[in-house]
Design goal:
alpha+beta; seven-stranded mixed beta sheet; four-stranded antiparallel beta sheet; 8 helices; 26% strand; elongated; Single_hybrid_motif; lipoyl; 2-oxoacid_DH_actylTfrase; 2-oxoA_DH_lipoyl-BS
């Protein structure tokens, strides 16, 4: 008999949630075979079986919170057969519905029947979680994906099924304070969703940054005329030579590296009463996923050419959206770039990432009238923002940094001199 335990993933990770069981009780399992997906604060991890045999027990359901070292399944010697009667949901391992612990997932509140057709539904972890919360049978959901994978959008479009009994509306009045009103859970005015583990972590860390730094933001605008013309001239040649398109991100990454070399305190961080000046240039690139923003890192961006940077960014973005990022893909960045322009943002104040001292925000390219050599011309313009920790970086360095990025993007040939 072999016990399947939650492995140690990183020093800072002590628990996770069961995102998806790939195998069910009674299934044959090979040694090294992926049987369950675990969602943690940072990444999704695939847990494998160390022994071959039959999965005889599942001790934690999808959505349950589990601790590192906890036994979540049992594999015993055998060839596999139909699921045993005891293979249903492990009631003895699931949290009691009335348990007051906030960390426990509400498994009993909205059960999901996933095998009415006799086959396990293929669905993303986010889709399974939403279906579980809304009491929707995944087998009844019609996926848009031609391969039949159910995604969170499909579950949302399917609508909700009647599930838990609504809690009575409550109102609480504090002495001298405002009255707080919570609508009933089934009210058509309010839809209640449980925050995912990753969303809770994102919220916690963003709040920590706001509370523990002296964050300030400075702005500038960039005339994108020359860089757009250069990309248009070189795109076909670049694609033929490198099998990837030449985007804006490689230019901005190169410009950021050059500016960080000129203003090293923007590439620093505070540790106690010390300032640590980083002599490396690992640039985080913010990527939007179904479950929130993640920031994988392009390592040693100063030593890479445009094609290498573009390929790194594309590979990391694909891994992020497929939930294949490892902890090493996101750890240790020295500066971050985020591009709200892909969603249509005209201007924003980005929040710094972790202990870093700065983050560059890119925005939409919009044709606007600007003064050029005493004449009004229509130019493609982009607002850029630098949020920075004022404890380390003074106004002179922050403005100088952003101005350097602006000048290099407006004169992209100059980036070759900084490569």
């Amino acid at each position: 008999m072999a016990e399947i335990k939650v492995p140690e993933l990183a020093e800072s990770i002590t628990e996770g949630s069961i995102a998806q069981w790939v195998k069910k009780v009674g299934d044959r399992v090979e040694k090294g075979e992926f049987i369950v997906e675990l969602e943690t604060d940072k990444v999704n991890a695939e847990i494998i079986s160390e022994e071959a045999g039959v999965l005889t027990q599942i001790l934690a359901e999808e959505g349950d919170t589990v601790l590192v070292g906890q036994v979540i399944a049992v594999v015993e010697a055998g060839e596999g057969a139909a699921a045993a009667p005891a293979a249903a949901a492990p009631t003895e391992a699931a949290p009691a519905p009335a348990a007051p612990q906030a960390a426990a997932a509400p498994v009993a509140a909205a059960p999901v029947v996933e095998e009415t057709s006799g086959e396990r539904v293929v669905a993303s972890p986010a889709a399974r979680r939403l279906a579980r919360e809304k009491g929707i049978d995944l087998a009844a959901v019609s996926p848009v994906d031609p391969q039949g994978r159910v995604r969170v959008q499909d579950v949302a479009a399917h609508g909700t099924a009647p599930a838990v009994a609504p809690a009575a509306p409550t109102s609480v009045a504090t002495s001298g304070g405002p009255v707080v009103f919570t609508p009933a859970a089934n009210s058509d005015r309010v839809t209640i969703e449980k925050m995912s583990r990753r969303r809770q972590t994102i919220a916690k860390r963003l709040l920590e940054v706001k509370q523990s730094t002296a964050m300030l933001t400075t702005f500038n605008e960039i005339d994108m005329t020359n860089i757009m013309a250069l990309r248009k001239r070189k795109q076909e040649e670049f694609v033929k030579a490198n099998d990837i398109k030449l985007g804006f991100m490689s230019f901005f990454t190169k410009a950021v590296v050059a500016a960080l070399k000129k203003y090293p305190y923007v590439n620093a961080q505070i540790s106690g009463d010390e300032i640590h000046l980083n002599n490396f240039f690992d640039i985080g690139i913010a990527v939007s996923t179904e479950e929130g923003l993640v920031v994988p890192v392009v390592r040693d961006a100063n030593s890479k050419n445009f094609a290498e940077i573009e390929k790194d960014i594309a590979n990391l973005a694909t891994k992020a959206r497929d939930k294949k990022l490892g902890l090493n893909d996101m750890a240790g960045g020295s500066f971050t770039i985020t591009n709200g322009g892909v969603f249509g943002s005209l201007m924003s104040t980005p929040i710094m990432n972790g202990t870093q001292a700065g983050i560059l925000g890119m925005h939409s390219i919009v044709n606007r009238p600007v003064a050029v050599n005493g004449e009004v011309q229509i130019r493609p313009m982009m607002y850029v923002a630098l949020s920075y920790d004022h404890r380390i970086i003074d106004g002179k360095d922050s403005v100088g940094f952003l101005k350097t990025v602006k000048e290099l993007i407006e004169n992209p040939e100059d980036l070759l001199l900084n490569s």
